[in-house]
Amino acid sequence: MVPQPADNAAQRPSAALPPAMAEIKSQSVDEVISEMNRMPLFMTTLDETDGEGGMNVALEALKALAYEGTRAEVADNFRQQGNECARAKQWTDAKEFYDKAIAALKAPPQVLDPVDGPKVVEVEVDEAAEAKREREIEEACYVNRALCNLEKKNYRSCIHDCAQTLRLNPTNIKALYRSSLVCLSLNKLSEALDACTRGLILDPTNTSLKSLSTKISAQQTHLNSVAKARREREERASAEKNALALALKSRGILIRNTGEAPDLEDAAVKLENVLDPSSTLSFPVILLYPVHSQSDFIKAFSEKEKLEQHIDYIFPLPWDKDGEYTPDGVEAYMETTAGGLIKAGKKMALGKILGSGKTDVMDGLVRMNIVPKHKASRWIEEYKRRKSG
Q: Which segments constitute the Cns1/TTC4 wheel domain (predicted)?
């Protein structure tokens, strides 16, 4: 019989872990993840520390790389990162990269310390070609940042970036399109049309500009229609106001406003035909029962109607337990313009009462005091006493 190997014979010896791996083996999963998050290659969130409150040397070195090279190279690096974010519709991040690219182009050339700095390698640069490249990158950054601001609805910033783009290149179609689009969003139609037209002169077949031109025209038509409707409303309101004023003046009816008009909702002094001063007038009328502190409201009391017609309909009053208010048992009084009282005939048309010139329509409302005949004298005395007091 072949002897079986012992259990520990199946275990083969392994080499000792490298020091770094041994250190990781002694850490928890969370500690390993935290450590990896400080390494630029594995970062999921930005950790600028070394885990002990110090500087993250690896990260700082990576950042420094972004600023190595000529201004054009540095700016173009940021521009490309901005373009990647823009393609992903990460507008805020894209804008920040374009900001950095533009700042890099405007920064003075770096001067390295010959003693402490790294060894400087002289490189011949074609200044004209470099300047041309810088200008192209700057133009691209401004027009792309304009897109970011447009998407974020930062309209003023978008217009500024488009203007900067056109300063560098007056024929930049994207800048003309985006500035026109912003102006359309702000209803600045003349500016929108100007930018769009300039773009179409440069590129007559540009479908985006042609579509935008159609939208501008449609918006202009809509705004013209809205403005026309508003003018017509204002003109009609003015004509109605003038017709009403003429109707009141021709009838000798006085109007007084105290600035403390009650809320009458849609009740108002009106003409039957609002543009015809000769048509029938109607008035909101409140019937006051001062002896009992009650009232009734008549929304439209025609100038041709008489008080008796309304009280015949209103009486008997539900709260009049003693039956004091009957068509024949009451009298009507109205205040005069001088502060006194006149008796208003129940059989007289309202238009004639108001046209007498002794009373007026105050704050768009006619007021009539309805008093039982047998209490009228006492009520009048109390009224005079209140007025004199």
A: 275-383
Residue 55 lies in a domain: no
d(CA 142, CA 173): 13
Q: Measured in whole angstroms, how far is the alpha carbon of residue 319 from the centre of its chain?
A: 52
Q: How many domains does the chain divide into?
A: 2
Indicate whether 157 belongs to any domain: yes
Amino acid at 350: L
Interhelix angle 91-106/71-87, nearest 10 degrees: 170
Cβ–Cβ contacts within 10 Å for residue 358, how many? 17
Q: Which range marks the domain in which residue 313 is found?
A: 270-388
Pairing relationship of beta strands 366-372 and 281-289 according to DSSP bridges? parallel
Q: Does 17 map to a domain?
A: no
Span 267-288, mean pLDDT?
Answer: 97
Q: What is the pTM of this model?
A: 0.63
- Range 89-113 average pLDDT: 87
DSSP, collapsed to helix, strand or coil, labels residue 37 as: coil
On whether both 162 and 303 belong to a single domain, the answer is: no
Name the band, by pLDDT with cuts 50, 70 and 90, for residue 209.
very high
Task: Kindly report, residue by residue over 60-96, the tens digit of the pLDDT.
Answer: 544 444 556 789 999 999 999 999 999 999 999 999 9
CA–CA separation, 130 vs 109, rounded Å? 13
The DSSP letter of residue 326 is: -
